[in-house]
Amino acid sequence: MQVVLIELASTGWQFNGTIPKELLQDCDVDNIESPQWVCSDVICSLDLQREYGDFKLDIEWSFDGEDRCMRCQDKTVRAYQKKLSLFFSFETDDETRDLVEKPGDLNILDILREEIWLNQNQSSLCKKKCKGLCTKCGVNRNRGQCQCDQVDVLHPFAGLRSLAFEKKD
Ligand SMILES: [Zn+2]
Ligand SMILES: [Zn+2]
Fold this sequence. Notes:
The protein is of the alpha+beta class. The protein has two domains: about 1-120, no CATH class; about 130-169, no CATH class. About 15% of the residues lie in helices and about 35% in strands. The strands form two sheets. A five-stranded mixed beta sheet has the order 2-3-4-5-6. Strands 1-7 form a two-stranded antiparallel ribbon. The longest helix has 11 residues, at about 110-120. It is elongated and about 80 Å long. One zinc ion (ZN) binds near residues 69, 72 and 126.
């Protein structure tokens, strides 16, 4: 998916379809790591247009991505869905626009990879009430109780706790 901005037709450039997971992950460019955590094909619509002398790329995607629960470290799959716009310019470089050199060679797939990385979820939970791991033994507490909570009961003096002292008047 290579586009040269200076050659962009007046109708722009569009892509509507599915980008296979394998293609997205097959990345031999050094500076962009391939997002191996994407675990489905990417349904994607792209629209690149001239806009006031600059260029605007509308992106809309949906795919499944694999995350790790931040509490229990279990793998979870979450649906990613997003609409975003990127701007490119031959003249202006600011927070909203990327300066590109003429003729403006864009590798759309790399741009997509980068944006997907930027939108990776960093703090997901496998479920709202994830109990996480036991801080003592590391057991996943969603799957059952560990012994740590019961240790007190086994303690030789634990029985003392339940002893009621008789009141003497
Ligand atoms: Zn969890
Ligand atoms: Zn434990």
